[in-house]
Batch of 2 targets.
Target 1
Amino acid sequence: MSRKPVLEIRGLNVDYGLGDQAVHAIRDVTLTLHRGEVLGLAGESGSGKSTLAYGTTRLLPPPGVITGGEVIYHPSAGEPYDVLGLTDRQLRAFRWAETAIVFQGAMNSLNPVHKISTQLTDVLRAHDPRMGEKQRTERAREMLTLVGIAPDRMDAYPHQLSGGMRQRVMIGMALILQPQVVIMDEPTTALDVVMQRQILGQLIELRERLGFSVVFITHDLSLLVEFSDRIAIMYGGRIVEEAPAAAIYRDALHPYSRGLLGSFPALRGPRRELTGIPGSPPDLKGMPSGCSFHPRCPKAFDPCAGRIPVLAPGGDGRTVACWLHEEAR
Amino acid sequence: MKYFLQRLAFYAFTAWAAITLNFLIPRMVPGDPVQSLITKYQGQLSSQAIDSLYVLFGLDRDMSVGEEYVKYWQQLFRGDLGLSFTFFPTPVSEIISDSLPWTLWLVGITTVISFAIGTGLGVLAGWRRGSWTDGLLPVTTFLSSVPYFWLGIIAIYLFTGPDSFLPSSGGADIGLEPAWDQWFVPSAIQHGLLPALTILVSSVSGWILSMRNMMVTVSSEDYITVAHAKGLSDRRVALGYAARNALLPNVSGFALSLGFIVGGTLLVEIVFSYPGVGFQLFQALGAQDYPLMQGVFLVITISVLIANLLADVAYLLLDPRTRKEG
């Protein structure tokens, strides 16, 4: 696989609110998405996964504010640029054409009063005003076919489609401008397991055909292990571990990653006890000192409560932020 | 279409019920119209006159309620609503058809303008919340709590007088016949201006508030975020996605307020002595003019029903989710 980066997040900080009241939802996150890869982003609710996705595309709902960092995008041709520095007009052109998003609430992602066709073609109209009406319709039909929906559903309204179909329409819509990056924010949470698999399988197949990169956000680590190339684990607004999917599955370095892996049954292999993680996710308003995971960590020791561990290489192209491994180095 | 027919049948039934009640209630009221007229003329009627009045009102023959009911419907279809006491012997239908256009023009135009301005400002205030437009809100809350008639009295006190351009009462200059000519129309506009502004000022804020609140609610929907993420222009997201969905509840409110055009601004018409339906109803109440009241109530009922039907149709057009197949 080529290791050329397509999206680099550097030292990103996102707050909700201003001043002393601000809640730091994303702290100093650095993450690189390479061309053509599927990067999984996992963590409990409130760990900042979605905020990270919204932050990089500047879609944060108020009172979310980006307080620092940069998001470098490498277009397929031309110089890399910082997404956070784009003007409104440039940002509109950037959105969807370069990075498309499939959202968490797939069921509500379509405007209930417009036909599917209208919602597919208005993207084209906004990004390429010179395209003719006929070409736009043609392209929209093509996308529906691509995601396995009969093109005669073009004139359907969202409420006439099932949840799975709506999510397929969203995926088709995300790919309509052939973006380089597709961010999937828990795209299958609202669907049943069979539909989840079908849609993900289709997505992976499309990715191989069209060659876009995927940021896949979910709390379902088992899904990530299966579908992604690399996995980043988030906790309390920070990335605590990042490694190839297989490496995480075989040998997670961070106790939190291990906890996550221990909380669901493996599809294959011997039976084992499900352990889970004691306690509950941290309150972002009053983060524990030092490593924010230490109150729940079974392996916490002296330095954990005092100092924040930094994300450092842990061998084999993986990084981890944990004092256990700091000492080992 | 089936849904539409169902609604239509429902409204036909409601109209029937309303008309039947309208028929029954006066018959449960003690006394009869001739007695009221006798009282009105204070014994100046000869016994012959009284007899002919009984014939005129159809009270000389002993009809069963059933027969009367059938006759009532027959009269209704001929547009015959009986004779007014106050303006005896003018038929009620004539009085209503004289006063209805005044009300329809004044309140109708004002309601449409008020809805258009209010909704427009509401969209703006909801979309740009947090900006200067939020300063509008306390003002609108205050204005929407002010009753029409009170504002009307204040307006008359402040803006009318012997040498003011704005007249304090009437629908047009005395002596002008309603017609589409260069004398009547400007005069009618001049007279309508103050009542119209009164209604506008106190009703527009309701539209602003409800539209703004809906815009704020809709703005947090997922499809709005998607629309932003799609890189659509701010205008397209605001109008095509947010306002288009936020409009739905306001449209039904609008259709309902159309129904109240006929009877809803009674007090404004009284304050400005405006020759509309509300003013006639006021006079009818004062004179115990039951036929006229009945006629006015009938017109109000039917207009509310028609407005409801319009609301249903508008909803069918605007919200695809209400369209049932088959």
Target 2
Amino acid sequence: MNRRSGTGYTGVPSWVYVIAAAGSLFILLPLVAMVAKVNWPQFIPLITSESSLTALGLSLRTSAASTALCVVLGVPLALVLARQPFPGQRLLRAFVLLPLVLPPVVGGIALLYTFGRQGLLGKSLEVAGIQIAFSTTAVVLAQTFVALPFLVVSLEGALRTAGSKYDAVAATLGARPTTVLRRVTLPLVLPGLASGAVLSFARSLGEFGATLTFAGSLQGVTRTLPLEIYLQRETDADAAVALSLLLVAVAVAVVGLSYGRRRSSAPVKEQL
Amino acid sequence: MTFDLTASLPARNFEMSLSLGPSETLAILGPNGAGKSTLLGVISGLLRPESGSARLGGRELFTLDGGTRRWSAPHLRGTALLAQEALLFPHLNVLDNVAFGPRSTGASRTEAREVARHWLDEVDALALANRKPAQLSGGQAQRVAVARALAAEPELLLLDEPMAALDIHTAPLLRRVLKRVLADRKAIIVTHDVLDAYMLADRVIVVESGRIVEEGPTRQVLERPRSHFAAGLAGLNLVAGTLGQEGITTPDGRVFAGQHDPDWSLVAGQAGVAAFPPSSVSVFLGDVHGSPRNSFPVTITDLEPHGDQVRVRASSGPSNTLSADITPAASADLGLAPGMEVRFVVKSALVSVYPA
Amino acid sequence: MSISRKTITALLAAGALAAGVAGCAGSSNTPAATSPASSSSSISGEITVFAAASLKATFTKLASDFEAKNPGTKVTLNFAGSSGLVTQITQGAPADVFASADTKNMAKLSDAKLIDGTATNFATNVLEIAVPPSNPASIASFADLAKSGVKVVVCAPQVPCGSATETIEKATGTTLAPVSEESSVTDVLGKVTSQEADAGLVYVTDVKTAGEKVKGIPFPESDKAVNTYPIATLGASKNKELAQAFIAAVTSADGKKVLDDAGFGTP
């Protein structure tokens, strides 16, 4: 293998590169196949149709909202999991990670029985005049449910790597726990928090099963881009492919953005 | 304004009690795992003992006994901690690192930065104010860390081996800085370095296995060590026994002749120690004729360079290790090697004998 | 859309097919019996039937009856949304018979010259209102669905049940404000059975399948959108004889009985 000068011994056998190449092809090829299927002359009209733009706008808005909700709920969860051990911590972690392995439709059913009209909390909410089913809120809840573990896992790892030495120093300098969190702990794990948030956003953007089961599908209210793709597939395969490509493009942009940020923050990480 | 502490933490085999006068600096010496860092953790509030109490001036740090369980959080204690690593917050520049303490306790940004500049100046690091921690050398970072700790205006400054991570060229500058800033404040410094104790501390505590084994003014502890650890730190050989007119007699009947401190009145039969520097020891092969005093057989355990000398370590019994410093030429002439049986001879004029 | 014309077309097609089957059978063996449903000893082998998801219960029964009557045959079934099945067939999926939930999807295949001969309409289906058993919003008619505060879930216009809903809305001048437009009947029923929605518009057969979990409320306006189910042998079939025999069984009196029981109408 012709390596750049100045690079050292990698310890990676060359056959590993072959399998790695096969692995990347496995991911890339279906995307290429999809791109090849795109009806290019019609591409722009297809993705700029009213229903497509509405779905894209809804997806971006709900994903942003659920990412914010993930940060609000996920940061404390990650802190609790990463710091002092307590009885039941492993169990809590297992539960927080559950949505990662659950089929999304199961998540949707679970949410339905929680926030639905007949649900555990939904009944009380209904009495209070709050209806979640069939609303954009339901979409945000569904997305948050599936995306939260990504934020927690990513942030917990960052917190463990950073350790609590800096926190302890800050406390002995007179900083209250809240000040320590705001001025030391969180700034130190910012790269981890950012990549966790980006992953959550990407996962929210792709959420389908839980939304379909829990939130329904109505243009401009609950029909996000994946639901629009699923529906368009019924009648207009070209539109479905074009929208799929749009979703891939948005996802690639989001993930690419996060990768770029992580690289630029590398010197700080080395410090830790 | 004094500091008093009694604390016990059986889980770490830790039980200590100590006091500190106003503007007194105390050095804690002891082998690894002796409980030095546990002590600092208990004082700073990062570690909770099982029982005990501590007061710092008018402030109650904790009272933990049966019914009373009062515990004040680290940020309310006024005990800034300076560790082996500088641990400067990597995302803040030097000035904001130092301003962190005042800022956290309510000062405005401008006030805090003013305080920070003052302390950076104190440690000769004002020129570094705008750098990020990643751009500092180890010594610079540690000086900034000192400024940061002092800027928090701690009632009691805790230093956990602050020089340990520095190379021998940068340590002296920090040591001078510390000498200046510790002069009129209460501080506890954990160290492995006898020089730190000499230069910075008024008093020394030697800890072993979570207990205080020796305590006293620095000079006294280091020149008249009673524990092997303190003797090792001071670079002295230490032999324990009972005091007699000539010197001391070891439990196995060997007699070490030495010099008594004329101020001390000797009580025969009292436990005592004999201390002597390795440079006072000569090494001979086979039997020595002439002066039979202070001559005893030993087995060489290892040889190592020590300055421009060779330090010969040898055991004279199951638990007694003695050292001799000889010239490399002498070592080569004698053909010394670990495992060899040789004879150590100590000049009695260089042996100090005193009660333990 | 004229039902009578379609019905006639379907009958003609069925007749032609029946004749075709008879002819086929006759050519290879003794003269065929008059009933196309009766077994012919000559048919054997395997076929794969792609059928609309709404036919799951009926076709499963029809296939096992068919296998019982014709030892040595095996009918493999694949159920999915009609448009999805059309996509699969277009991509070359190995199917012998296609039963669609609407004529539109069958037309796609005949336009692409992928079916053998013409399609036969073998069943019809109309919409029905599905409500939770307690009928919380007291729905009694199609017009009730348009009342404010009633949470109605319908199929999206892109799928057959949704286009039928749209047709009825246009014909009656009633505009519904659904809280959700689902992509499948299952999703509509799910919202009704979980009582998230007060009512849903699905096919009468779907209400039957759902059993106790929902209550069906027929409404006369449903005849404005009668959905017709066509069935056809595919051009790529390797066992057209068996495929024709299966279609004949579906369109036979026995087949019609099974379909009737499930709520399907006769074209």
